[in-house]
Design brief:
9 helices; three-stranded mixed beta sheet; HSP40/DNAj peptide-binding domain; binds zinc ion; alpha+beta; four-stranded mixed beta sheet; Helix Hairpins
């Protein structure tokens, strides 16, 4: 896979560019590389697709936020991704409807011969996106999980199959636009004849008019209900990540496209483990005699318990590493480790007998600290453990 260029770079705008500026920049780039202006030029076509992909993301507040946070990997395979990213030309042209459709530039490309959606549109309003929070525990995050959740939302009306009409006879092709949803006008300008395309005002661009409404949905083509949605959560997701399932949001009105379902990942705290990126940390407490003699201990890991050996003479603050016992990288190959931070437990209160014993110990030279001068500093150890 080739590396993708930064979307802001593709459109030639800064990260702080406003929506207007992004739209303008996209228009400029798209016009420059439009296939009608560069017939047979593969490189121009690639640039054109690249710009469309960049615009699809940067023009959508949700996708833009995701991109700003996670970069291209926000839309990698397995995350549910986003539709149309990799350049189906028809998708890109249909996107043009929004940006070029209703002004004088609408037909600057070619003679209006390119059909945007094959004539008949019959598209009602698109459904809105839905956001759902999803709480996952460490084990689910580490292995990936399939969750079936019940989503309350607008669903397509069964009675009228989403058309909003009482029956077939009460749905008529709009006579104003002949079902195309668009009205073309030819204007004479100083540049010559220009065609403009505007949305049909009779049917609001839907291509059909309804004479009698469906009783179930009152003509909306959708009803409020619920749907079981199966979510495939890839391994390695993190608190705050968003996955989007295209078409699983609210149903559109009268057969309009569905919105997306956006899943916001939340992490359930683990009773003993702490997450830091791909690594997990565990605070281990051992007794002073165990630190002196060495011991075997059981420690919790993301998936069950693991036995580790504490060698004789282990210092408090020592960090042991269980390789590969951390989290996998989402859509990647690397895996984190589990870090075990050793703490030697200091008793908080002792009997008089213990006190006498400890005082005796304190007189022995073996008990006097003599740190190794070559030992790494605390900061170096932390840095190394979490690298
Ligand atoms: Zn209905
Ligand atoms: Zn019409």
């Amino acid at each position: 896979m080739s590396t993708k260029r930064d979307y802001y770079e593709v459109l030639g705008v800064s990260k702080s560019a406003a929506a207007d500026e992004i739209k303008k920049a996209y228009r400029k780039v798209a016009m420059q590389f439009h296939p009608d202006r560069n017939p047979g030029d593969k490189e121009a076509e690639e640039k054109f697709k690249e710009a469309a992909e960049a615009y699809e993301v940067l023009s959508d507040a949700d996708k833009k936020a995701k991109y700003d946070r996670y970069g291209h990997q926000a839309f990698g395979p397995g995350t549910g991704g986003f539709g149309g990213g990799n350049g189906n030309m028809e998708d890109i042209f249909s996107q043009f409807g929004d940006i070029f459709g209703e002004d004088i530039f609408g037909n600057i490309f070619g003679g209006g011969g390119r059909s945007r959606s094959g004539g008949r549109r019959s598209t009602g309003q698109r459904g809105s996106n839905l956001r759902v929070k999803l709480k996952l525990n460490f084990e689910e995050i580490a292995k990936g999980v399939t969750k079936n959740i019940k989503v309350k939302k607008y669903v397509s009306c069964n009675t009228c199959s989403g058309s909003g009409a009482k029956d077939k006879g009460s749905m008529q092709t709009c006579s104003n636009c002949n079902g195309s949803g668009q009205v073309r006008k030819v204007q004479n300008t100083f540049l010559g004849q220009m065609q403009t395309v505007t949305t049909c005002s009779v049917c609001n661009g839907e291509g059909t008019t309804i004479t009698a409404k469906c009783h179930t949905c009152k003509g909306e083509g959708r009803v409020y209900g619920e749907e079981m949605v199966s979510l495939d959560i890839p391994a390695g997701v993190q608190e705050g990540m968003q996955l989007s399932l295209s078409g699983k949001g609210n149903a559109g009105e009268r057969g309009g496209a569905n919105g997306d379902l956006i899943i916001l990942i939340e992490e359930e705290a683990h009773p003993a483990l702490h997450r830091d990126g791909l690594n997990v940390a565990f605070e281990l407490f051992i007794t002073f005699p165990d630190a002196v003699f060495g011991t075997n201990v059981e420690v919790p890991t993301i998936d069950g318990k693991a036995k580790i050996k504490i060698p004789a003479g282990t210092q408090s603050g020592k960090i042991f590493r269980l390789k590969g016992k951390g989290f996998p990288e989402v859509n990647g190959y690397s895996k984190g480790d589990q870090l075990i931070h050793v703490n030697v437990w200091t008793p908080q209160g002792v009997s008089s007998e213990e006190k006498a014993m400890l005082e005796r110990m304190n007189e022995s030279n073996n008990f006097k600290p003599h740190p190794d001068k070559n030992e790494k500093s605390f900061f170096e150890k932390i840095k190394e453990a979490f690298s």
